[in-house]
Amino acid sequence: MKIIKPHISKLERKNYKWIYLFLLPSFIIFATFYIQPIFTVIYTSFTKWDGFNKPKFIGLENYIRLFNNAAFKGSLKNLLIWAIIATIFHVGFGVLVAFAIFKKPFGWKFTRAVFMIPNVISAAAWAMIYRFIFNDDMGMINNLVRKFNPDFHIQWFYKSPFAFIAVTLTWLFYAVIVTLIVLNDLFAIPSELFEASRVDGASNLQIVRHIQLPLCRNAIGTSIIASVTARVAMYEQIALTTAGGPGDDTMNLPIILVKSVLDLKYGYANANGVIMFILGLLVLWIINKLFRMNERVY
């Protein structure tokens, strides 16, 4: 089969220089605020640097110390568990709400608005709210349980394994971004596809499985990328509740990074930052492959 290449006229080629000219400011800003800092982080991760004196090259020493650190190993374990929870439950819940709203039941606009309100509150504010919700003396959770079990006393954020559960609940059900992304793709599906499938005798479940979910794969994949990378960079929820404890139960990479910076170990902190950067790229690559996000949907 002969592939016909599109013909580009000389005039179009001539106009390319103007396109490049308009793109130049964006490229300069991107190079200044993104590319240059990334290269600085990578370079200084191989140095001993206190942030004030000149960095001293020490090779892989920071990375060796990092991978021998029990807190770092605990962080990777926690991140893996949180990534699985985010992919299955966090994104799954957001997709489920999107499909429910798409059916436009009675009061669906009100439900969408109410679902969105808690999600506009910052992660730091939610962390402080949850400190009171899980408080043993005045918290809603423990006081509700004590209605049935008067001897129930748990310090959720300070006792293992409850701290991990409490931290997870601070973000688990706040999936409005997932819902909006998937809902946008659902509304973009041509209604003719639904009409044709019903004429062919397809049930509602078959429409969801064979039409809606496949056509929303880019939205779901994007949601998984956003959710998992948010777990890589999650800081406020942990810093304001458990600070990584008890032990290393809720330790994660940003907590290690910030503690290293406060101890003036910038090289070590940047080694941790490089690992976070690599994990983000790895998540992006894996989800792109699994969901075939570079392929056209229609």
Provide tags for this entry.
MetI-like fold, mainly alpha, 66% helix, two-stranded antiparallel ribbon
Summarize model confidence as the mean pLDDT: 89
Indicate the percent of residues in helices.
55-70%
Widest sheet: strand ordering: 1-2
SS class: mainly alpha
Number of helices: 14
Number of strands: 2
Number of domains: 1
Broad CATH class: Mainly Alpha
**Rg from Cα:** 24 Å
Separation of termini? 23 Å
CATH architecture annotation: Orthogonal Bundle
Short account of what is shown:
With 298 residues, this protein is an all-alpha fold. The protein has helices spanning 10-44, 61-67, 70-102, 108-116, 123-133, 140-145, 162-169, 176-188, 191-199, 204-215, 217-232, 236-239, 253-262, 266-290, and strands at 47-48, 56-57.
Task: Write a structural description.
It is flat, with a radius of gyration of 24 Å. The chain has one domain: MetI-like (MetI-like fold), CATH 1.10.3720.10. β1 (47-48) and β2 form a beta hairpin. α13 runs antiparallel to α14. It has 298 residues and is mostly helical. A two-stranded antiparallel ribbon has the order 1-2. 66% of the residues lie in helices and 1% in strands.
